[in-house]
Every structure is written in C-alpha cells, then in structure tokens.
C-alpha cells in the first residue's frame, strides 16, 4: 500500500474507533506510519483526509448493500439478506456513527457523503419494496418509503443498542424483530417465529 | 439553581451537543459559570460529573417512556404514543448518542446507566406487547422481545438518519414505517396507510 492509501485506511479506522473529534492528525500519522510532511503532501489537512476516508466508507456501504439487493430470491429474501448481512455490530456503522460527531455535521462537505449514502440506501430499499408490492408479493397497503426508512433505522439503532448492551446479540434481535414485522405484510400466510 | 445543579445541567447539555470526548472540564466550567475549585468541590472530576449527568438523562428518558406506556388506550395506541412522543430529532438521543463515545463505552461505570436504560426500555415495551398478545389485541405470532428491540432501534436509528439528512422529517417517517408494520399484527383488519 502506498502512503496515500495508508493515510486513508488509517483515517477510516480511527474515525470508526474514535470519531472525528477524537482523531488527531498526530494519531493518523502514528497509525499510518506517515510523517507530517508526507501527510500534508497528500492532503490539505484533517478535513480533506477525513473526506477521502468517509467517501470510501460510504462507497463500501453502497457496494455491499447493492450486492444484497441484487442477490437472487424474492424481495423479502433480498431484504432479509441485506438486513442479516454480517456486520461488526459492536463497532457500530462506520458511516452512521459520524452523525454523532458535531464537527462532521457542522461541515457541509463532510456531511454530504453521509447524507447521500443514507438517501441512496433508503431510496434503493424503497424501490425494492415497491417492486414487491407491484408483483403482489407484498401487500398493497405497505408504504415503501416509510418502511424502507424504518428498516434502515433498525440497523442504525441496532448498532446503538448492541453497543449499549455490549452484545452483538441485541443487533441480531432487532433485525429479527424487523423481519418478523415485515413478514406480516407478505401476501402469503406470514411465516411467524416459532 | 445551586452550583452543583448548574454543573450537572451544563454537563448534560455539553454531552448532548459535543459528546464526552468533546466536553472538557474547562467547557463545563464556562457553561455553568462555576470555577475550577467549585467543580472539584462537588465532583471528583469529569467522569464523576458525567456519571451524574448521564444518570439524570437516563432517568428522564425512563420517566417519559413510562408516562406514554401508562397512558390510556389500547396497547397499539400506547406504543404509538411512545413512538410519536415529541423529540428533538436533530439533536439525537441524549442517552443513545453516548454509545458512540469510545471513552464512555470503555468505562464500565459510565456505560452501566446506558445499558440499564435500554434494557429497561426494551423489557418494558416487550411486556406491553405481550399484554396485547394475551388480550388478543395483537397476533399470537408476534415476538414481543424481538419486536420491542426493533421498535427501540427504529427510534435510535431514526435520530441517526434525521441527523444525516439534516431533517426531522426522516425521523417521523421511520416512526410511520414502524407503526405501519406493527399495524399488520393487530388482529382487526390493520389500518393501512392511505
């Protein structure tokens, strides 16, 4: 990995672990093994480097979601595949956790990729649910946009609850609960938890 | 308000706005108007003061939830009252946002009130859903524990999405989606969104 790449990856890790406020240029240099001169050769400063790191985390989030959304199966199965995709629940979401960082939220450039990512994710999931409604797989009464927002919120809130409890089980339980609720909207007799 | 009280309230505000890592003893003194000597007379230091502040925010969260849970109406109406209770969506949850603070999570004393609060909240909501299932208001197939976890996650994730979008509307939409999903589990013909 070249120095620029090491700087971006180290910043991504530190943002995930410590947040923006808790990530100093010094810590980035220590983690990446890059000197101060090298860091400022590649990036204008912490915001510029953070933007590259956030943009890459956002891109990964989209790619992984898209892989689940375009997997095989019914709409319900693809939504379940997305919700159940393996995640490091106790580490939190590398993108969502940044919404709790006041300095990130106050900077329009840094907030933009976060806003775009969740808008894309919710819209993509709403489109999938609408597809299921059109095909008759899901009830006509299901509101795709509101349901999609609720499902994305379950994931983001699942991280919060898992961290609060110190247990990834809680994240899995939130997902189970959401899929149980969604199952009721399938037009076939819903598969109910045993 | 006496000095001790002003110190606690100022710390609560700062934790809500800036998080634990972003809140310095100096900022607490400036906000509260208390001197350094006075602060250390009342509290041993930032962790001690933060514990008092977090415990009070947790207590308020419980009191408000309990008020909604014991309001009049069916189980579905009381759950809806809780989910729709007015919140400062763009400020985030004063308790939940602390799960993103690595220094809070690393300190068992500071994490304890956060863990207890969400365990209580999820358990209380699960009890309410179980009550609705026993009375026949909700379908027998509804899993109270998983559903309760999903609903609390929707609120916590709703804050994340609202902050990402810079819009409290997104929070309301997540709640609408969750209530739409829950409505399907009511034994009467579910009230579907128009």
From TrEMBL, chains A, B:
Domain of life, source organism: Bacteria
The entry's keywords: DNA-binding, Transcription, Transcription regulation
Pfam family, one: TetR_N
Domain HTH tetR-type: start-end pairs: 1-61
A molecular function (GO) term: DNA binding
Transcription regulation keyword on record: yes
InterPro entries found in the cross-reference section: Homeodomain-like_sf, HTH_TetR, Tet_transcr_reg_TetR-rel_C_sf, TetR_C
Residue ranges flagged as DNA-binding region: 24-43
Gene3D superfamilies: Tetracycline Repressor, domain 2
Cross-referenced PANTHER family: HTH-TYPE TRANSCRIPTIONAL REGULATOR LMRA, TRANSCRIPTIONAL REGULATORY PROTEIN
The protein, known as: TetR/AcrR family transcriptional regulator
